[in-house]
Amino acid sequence: MQQAFDFAPTPDPERAPEAGAGExxxxxxxxxxxxxxxxxxxxxxxxxxxxHRVDRGGPRQVxxxxxxxxxxxxxxxxxxxxxxxxxxxIAVMPTGAGKSLTYQLPARMLDGTVLVIxxxxxxMKDQVDALVQFGFRAAEINSSLDPSTRQSRxxxxxxxxxxxxxxxxxxxxxxxxxxxxxxxxxxxxxxEAHCISQWGHDFRPSYRRLxxxxxxLDVPVLALTATATRPVARDILRQLGMRKPAGYxxxxxxxxxxxxxxKKGSGDTKREILALIRDREGDPGIVYCLSRKTVxxxxxxxxxxxxxxxxxxxxxxxxxxxANQEAFQRDDVEVIVATVAFGxxxxxxxxxxxxxxxxxxxxxxxxxxxxxxxxxxxxxxxxLFYSWADVKMHERFLDELEPxxxxxxxxxxxxxxxxxxxxxxxxxxxxxxxxxxxxxxxxSCDVCSGESLESIALDAISRLGGRVRDAGxxxxxxxxxGGGVAxxxxxxxxxxxxxxxxxxxxxTADRQNxxxxxxxxxxxxREMAVRRPATPAELLEVPGVGPAKLERYGxxxxxx
Length: 560
Hints:
Number of strands: 13
Largest sheet: 7 strands, parallel
Strand order of the largest sheet: 3-4-2-5-6-1-7
């Protein structure tokens, strides 16, 4: 396996005081035992027994018979082999590279439960829903559950009835930590592992509860992240106590992301953003803003101009915030306007564009936030509007930090400003930040393509009030550049079928009360539109259609 990092330890940074966590689990004695398994997990277990008995075949057999794919994405097989060999492993893989498969597939082959530590409980339910679609016995255990349901899942975890269980780091205190030690855990997975490092861009004190857990469980640990620099990666290894770990670092180049930047001050930024969104009508996307006030004003402006948009920031009531996220997840609205509080809690594969109204705080944040576009590998747009005023605004949030850490964070913001203010290939500049070299991207950014964000925005403005370009159909026809290989170009008839399949997917997902992409993502629908399968056997040959989804959806999608 490729060794991604120099694993020499780094000095222990000054630890921040433990902050109160918004999703903290309640300590204390557990309530009395209740029913063993929730209905959807019981149903999934039965489906798994009937559809997915693979007799612990090799990873490629599981990949085909459970997930419906013939080939692994880069790095997946190496990480999976390390996990199955019982080794600790750190994997740095960009968003959209399929990190989750590196623990999902082993969960079907290992004896015991794969325990996944995930930072946001809002993401867990969608992850579990997606696994249930594949026939896994999976569940999330967190403070959002009622006491009876929570206790039934705790009992099931202790009995080893789950293949995969998700837990928030806040839960690793008191009786729950003791219960985990009593459970048949086969693998400890730390998702968003950069959150454990104070040197990273998204440090979360709650992740320090993971310290010592590896030794207590005496099982291998798999650390997953999309945005770790070398110092952060070394800190992850030290904090988690990983022993002679295997390491994989994938390429950070995502050629399907079309990056463009524009300096604020020479145009009407608000109107340009409106035009860009209207020009992509039918495609879901995210507008990132630096402050809650800007989120609210931008949302109001878009809604006034007939854009279906909702706000998302920490100042909203939890119920409203959750409802807005749910509406975006399920394609009930096309646009979410958000602070950086939004994003880690979603796993939506069909986000087609991300617009930053303001500059993020550092390169890691920018890369992670644009990474929420095009997770299915299809072409997607990433536009950044920036100014020096954004740098000064970020500095206001650093006053409480120790001088050394404050200067490091300020320098990171200035580095991003200088990066985007220069005329160099956007992808190449990002990769260089993560210690990876590449030639200019040729056509995936404004510098290399010669098409500036200013010209794109002005063209879009010229169409405001007139015929809006059908971006959904345009993008469906064009070849995606995910993985560096273009997909077949769709004919007009293929595009019409693709749109019918999208409508069917939405109807199916609404009936099941799950996000649309959990049924099939856009890439799978695209393959269906091109291949036009006529039999269950032909549908099973479509990448991403495994036996469980064939059983659930085959008849209706074959009739579309």
